[in-house]
Design goal:
Elements: E1 4-7, E2 10-13, E3 18-24, E4 32-39, E5 46-51, E6 58-60, E7 68-73, E8 78-83, E9 92-100, E10 116-117, E11 121-126
Parallel strand pairs: 2-11
Antiparallel strand pairs: 1-3, 3-8, 4-5, 4-9, 5-6, 7-8, 9-10, 9-11
């Protein structure tokens, strides 16, 4: 089991940028596929981006493709989400999530694929 702690959320104007970071405890970080998901008020939690164990494969939701970039540092046990060209509809609580996998190329696509979650960090984009 790992523990995840997000940071970097805040208030930003539309068109601006934020970088979220997730610190992960445990010595087996490189055995986990990682992801970012978000939940807006009154909506279900949705997939944003995910990355495989090595960082060589990534997937993005269509709504963020070309604007967000997920990356990981296996030496530092961190996974980041760089968010550019933010829109008011990106406003949500953003969660870091992890799932163990023995498949090096596995990239989870659904919230149900993840086993461990952080507490979340609020991102608010004003128009």
């Amino acid at each position: 089991q790992v523990q995840l702690v997000e940071s970097g959320g805040g208030l930003v104007q539309a068109g601006g940028s934020l970088r979220l970071s997730c610190a992960v405890s445990g010595r087996t970080f490189s055995s986990y596929a990682m992801g970012w998901l978000r939940q807006a008020p009154g909506k279900e939690r949705e997939f944003v981006a995910a990355i495989n164990r090595s960082g060589g494969s990534t997937l993005y939701a269509d709504s963020v493709k070309g604007r967000f970039t997920i990356s990981r540092d296996n030496a530092k046990n961190t996974v980041d989400l760089q968010m550019n060209s933010l829109k008011p509809e990106d406003t949500a609580v953003y969660y870091c999530a992890a799932t163990p996998t023995s498949y090096s190329n596995y990239v989870p696509l659904s919230p149900t694929n993840f086993r461990s979650w952080g507490q979340g960090t609020q991102v608010t984009v004003s128009s």
